[in-house]
Amino acid sequence: MAKKKPNTSAEFVLVNVLYEDGSQRSNRKVPASELTGFDDETDIQRVIEEQDRKIAEMSGQPLAPIQSISRVGGRR
Q1: Whole-model pTM?
Q2: Is 3 part of a structural domain of the chain?
Q3: Mind spelling out the 3-state secondary structure of 22-60?
Q4: Three-class SS of residue 18?
């Protein structure tokens, strides 16, 4: 019998990002491997800002600065 695939829900942390211009991006994925466990919020913001830089380079349109980040599912 084939083995079941392990639960992969812990591979990513989902966050909602609110930008200073009022726009919002929901369910942004942050790899759990990028989190150190000491200051997850700082790690999450660093990863999101890195993703935003790549998006801005490809689209040619810069995103506004981040106002706040909140985890999906209520964990803060």
Answers
A1: 0.77
A2: no
A3: CCEEEEEEEEHHHCCCCCHHHHHHHHHHHHHHHHHHHHC
A4: strand
Which residues form the domain of 62?
A: 9-71
3-state secondary structure of 69: strand
Domain count, the chain: 1
3-class DSSP assignment, residue 13 = strand
CB 17 within 8 A of CB 69: yes
Distances (CA, A) of 58 to 54, 55, 63, 76: 6, 5, 12, 31
pLDDT digits (tens, 9 = 90+) for 5-30: 555 556 999 999 999 999 999 999 99
Rounded to whole angstroms, the Cα distance separating 18 from 30 reads 15
